[in-house]
Every structure is written in C-alpha cells, then in structure tokens.
From TrEMBL:
Residue intervals of the Glucose-6-phosphate dehydrogenase NAD-binding domain: 38-220
Protein name in UniProt: Glucose-6-phosphate 1-dehydrogenase
Family under the similarity heading: Belongs to the glucose-6-phosphate dehydrogenase family.
Gene source species: Panicum virgatum (Blackwell switchgrass)
EC number: 1.1.1.49
SUPFAM superfamilies named among the record's database cross-references: Glyceraldehyde-3-phosphate dehydrogenase-like, C-terminal domain, NAD(P)-binding Rossmann-fold domains
Oxidoreductase recorded as keyword: yes
NCBIfam families referenced in this protein's UniProt entry, alphabetically: zwf (TIGR00871)
Amino acid sequence: MSGGSSESSPLSGQNSFSSLSSFKDLELSSESGCLSIVVLGASGDLAKKKTFPALFHLFQQGFLQAGEVHIFGYARSNLSDDGLRERIRGYLKGASDEHLSQFLQLIKYVSGSYDSGEGFELLNNTISEYETSKNNESGSYRRLFYLALPPSVYPSVCKMIRSYCMNPSSHTGWTRVIVEKPFGKDLDSSEKLSAELGKLFEEDQLYRIDHYLGKELVQNLLVLRFANRLFLPLWNRDNIANVQIVFKEDFGTEGRGGYFDQYGIIRDIIQNHLLQVFCLVAMEKPVSLKPEHIRDEKVKVLQSVEPIKHEEVVIGQYDGYKDDPTVPDESNTPTYASVVLRVHNERWEGVPFILKAGKALNSRKAEIRVQFKDAPGDIFRCKKQGRNEFVIRLQPSEAMYMKLTVKNPGLEMATEQSELDLSYGMRYQDVKIPEAYERLILDTYAPLDPSAKFVCNAFSYLQVSAGKKSSFLSHGLFTSANVCFDRIRGDQQHFVRRDELRAAWEIFTPLLHDIDAGKLKSVSYEPGTRGPQEADEMSRRMGYVQTHGYIWVPPTLAKF
C-alpha cells in the first residue's frame, strides 16, 4: 500500500454525504421505554401452557429485559400475584430457580370481569403505576394485549381496552392486540367479528395469531422455494402430480368433546393451520419480504381456489367419539376430513392439493408431501417402487427429505427407494428451535437483537458524523438495517390480515354449511388407523401413488 492511502473502518469512509435523506424511511429512533404485556385470560389453559412459557423463553434469551418490561395477568379468577405465579410455575421449564424467580417477579395479577369498566380501570391504573415508576426518559409507553380468551368475548374485551387501557395520548408508543383463533365459525360470523374489532383498532394494531406460521419449517418455506434455483423450474403443474398437507393426532378429544363438537376438524385445523401452509406452498414470489407484499400473494392464491366439490371431500368420525357425555348422540361433527383444493391459475391448473387432518389416528405428525410425476421412459422398470417426493416434516422430528430412486449397492443393477435427508436434530444439534409462540410474540413488539443494535449504532454514528459515508453499506449491512427497522415497527408477516381471513372463509363456508345441514355424512373409522378407507381411495383418484415397502426413519446419532 502507498503511504498516502489510509484504511477505512466499518464506520468511516472517504466520500461525503450530501444528506442522510436516503435513510429517512428507516425510522431511525429505535423503540425503547416501558413495555407492558397484558395476558387476558391469564388463569386459563392457553395462557399457562403456551403464552407464559413463550414469554419466559423470550426472557431467558434476553428479548425481554427485567428493567424494560412488566407482565400483567387479567382474569375473572380470584387470585393474588403469588397465586398466579404458582399456577404457571410448573409450566416454565429449563431454568435455574434464580432465573425463574426473576421472571415471576415481573408478573402482577388483576382480577376483573371482561365486560365491566371497573376491572379494566383497575388494570389501567396498575399498568400506569409501573410506567410512571420506571423514570422513563424516552416517554414511550408500549402496551401489548394478548387475548387468551374465547372469541365470543373479543368485542367486549376490546371495547374495554379501547375505553380504559390505551397507551396515554400524552406519550409516544403504541397499543397492540393479539387475538387467537378461531376467528368466527363461518364467513358471516368472521366478518361481524372483524367489523367490530375494526371499529376499535386499526389493522396495524391487530395481530391475528396462527401459531403454525411460527413453526420453523413453515417459516423455511419461502426460503426453500425462492432462494434455491433447484426448485424454481420444478414447482409447477408440469412436474408436480399432487400435494398433500397432512395433520395427524394419535389421540381423540380427551374430555374436550363438547367444545370440539362446536367446531370440528375443518374449522379447528384445516381452514386455518393447513390453509396457511397451503398459501406458502402455492403462492407466487412476492415483490419483497415486506409483510404486505407476502400477504398480498397469499390473498391472490386464496382467491384463485375453485369452489370445493362434494365428491372431493371425505369426512369421518372415530368410533367412540360420541361416548363423551358432552357430545350429542346425533352429532355429525367430523373428527377427520380430507379436502381437495384446486387452484385456477397458470402454475397449478390440474394439480390437486389434498388437505387432510384427523384425530385418533395411527400416528402424530404434520407434514407437506409434494409428489412429482413419473419419470418418462422408465428404462429401469422401477415405477412400482414409487415416485420422487419432497417431504417437509413440520412436527415432530423436524426434517426435509427427498425420496429418490437409487441403485441398490451390489453387483446387480437393482434399484430401491432412498432419500436425501436434512434432519434438524442431526444437522443442528446445538441449536434450540424456538417454539412458534415465542417467534410470533416477538414479532409483535420486536426488540433489537445484538446484530441489529450494531446496525442502529452505525446509523447513530452517521447522524453524529454527517460528513462521512459509511463503508458498511458495501458490507451488506444496509439490508440488515432494513430488516431490523421493519421489526421495530412490529412485523405482521406471520399474522393473518383481514382480507386474507375473508378469502379463507369464502373457500370453506359453503362446505361447512352443507356439513352442518347434514348434506355430507361422517363415515366411521377405527381409532388407531389411517382414517376412513374412503379418504385413501379419494387420494388414489387424485393421482397420489403410495410408496410400499419404504418408511422414512429419522436418523439418530446412535447409528454412527
């Protein structure tokens, strides 16, 4: 190097800025100040089994800081602060007693009804006491309400929040509301609920949570499809014969039959969880990774789905379901359903998407199974062994594997089915895969992780040293900054938008009404089986070819 040259640090450079206007859209001031997380329905099963454990895991990983956050439980149960803490303690796993105690001390409890202003006024006063006690220099008060409640009380609870518990107008910050499924029972009830909530909150304040969108392998779908050249020319009707999206449980309703009977397996699983997975499998490439661009494409593919035909539906009910005294003797509610969706567009015309879900089956799993067409000119006479399949195992034992026909080792030219396997338990042994609720709750308030803090510090440096252009732009950190500041604003990519919800209900409401009216009858099936034989027969009619003699076994370290 010549003596006249000098090295550039990551935060310095030789060219000058004319202005910092190119960063205007990034909203440089990161969110700080008090974060109040309110769990409504705090004494219920969902809160103690999912919501509080997710918050605890975020606390363990440093995404909730003791000096910046407080958690409030609200329910009708007559409990003390310590009473709620003891109720949830047993569900908070994997930490020392000291760490657990630190988290539990962040939790306070307020008792009140869901339709009375008195309880919510007390809740607001309790939150305000915490906010004013923090000596908050930024003056930013952030309030996140998690409704771990039945949808029937959403309107009254949201009215109370709007009337009594909003972020004070005298301070910067926000108020956001997370609502759980089910979002109605059909199109009309869903639209009514959306309209009632829409009168109280803007769309960017509402986070309709579907926890399947927080699963690791579901979040991997966009990366797999659009970051790998391998899949781009294959992912269409020219190469794919059919797609199955499957959810199986090996247990029945287990005492919840009365509740389940109000909804059934289609409302409970297919119309939301599996349909969200379907969107990510079938949608077109979005313009960018911005939440609205992704959700726009999901809406488009939902609007391309043709009306469901009765002859492409099988519903079933396992023997013994009606033994539950809370289930009516005449119930036709399906505990199993297999539904074929057809997409009327250039990519998917003629390809059946088979969405299957059931209880009391022979195994527990959720997976996507993309089956490719037969290889033309079968010179090895191996067609009987099965087709190529790309399988994404969502749970349990997260994995992706490609079923291939290969030569059987030995002197003979014989073929067999094998696989290319990416099993997460093997490949990522030292990586903890976050629970879905952790990811989704994090997206609603999105604090900065350490790498994002570095980017924000870089921007702060630029504002102070306005005469220098940072070379970190050439290091790819500008993209990181965009991602970071999108997250600060609250990332709704993995939440359901109102028009997306409407499009989903438009697909299934006619079928659900026909089932409710008895126009389709549930066939019986034995617990512990694959489900109704009629469902397997329908899959064969749709062109699915089952592989016989091949079973994928998750690899383990014991083999090596």
